[in-house]
Amino acid sequence: IGYIPGEIHMYDTLSGRDHLKFQASLQGGVDSKYVKKLAFRLQVDLNKPIKSLSHGNKQKIAIIAAFMHEPKLLILDEPTTGLDPLIQREFYDLVSEVNQAGSTFFISSHVLPEVERMCHRVGILKEGRLIVTEEIDTLKKRAVRSLEIQFAREVKTADLQGIKGVRELQVEGNIAHCRVEGSLDQLIKKISKYEVLNLITQEADLEQ
């Protein structure tokens, strides 16, 4: 089993390399070439002491520790925390490759785009209870997004009411804020009657 905890704790006096050697000894040894390959892909210097590393680089060490013994099951809690966008993309590629090679992942995340990128099926927990399991495509249809729409002229709240999926509608002058559950199709058709200067959408959060 490979595991990345939500809060990472390491021996600060060790280097990244020594930390991984210690972890490898608990697994009965690992392929050192694979460890070097992972470090190269994640762009982390294993010779630096743990105490000198940023949170993001500590996260990279934790990722290597979880993957280096090529486990068939990986449990990852918010695995991309602290990673910059380029390394996040590399991590997604790594997950895809390992998954295609036959490994199974359990990933904890509240960020829908990340879940969509890595997962096929989703379970949602609320207050410690599993309340629903869905295929990712089904979940996307139920996702809630926050939108800001800027019109060329002032609009009235009544002009935008009664649209399927739209809730928490607030209109001030030429700017409207709302939340939309599921498809944006009906909203887009409605606002297409007006001159729209800008539309900003915030990706859905699984906590919603």
- Give the strand order, joined by hyphens, for the main sheet: 7-8-6-9
Shape: elongated
Give the overall pLDDT as a whole number.
Answer: 89
**Helix-strand category:** alpha/beta
Number of domains: 2
The total count of helices amounts to 7
Under the CATH scheme, the architecture of the largest domain is: 3-Layer(aba) Sandwich
- CATH structural class of the largest domain: Alpha Beta
The whole-angstrom Rg is 22 Å
Order of helices and strands: EHHHEHEHEEHEEEHE
- The CATH superfamily of the largest domain is P-loop containing nucleotide triphosphate hydrolases
- Indicate the proportion of strand residues: 25-35%
Query: Helix coverage percent of residues?
Result: 25-40%
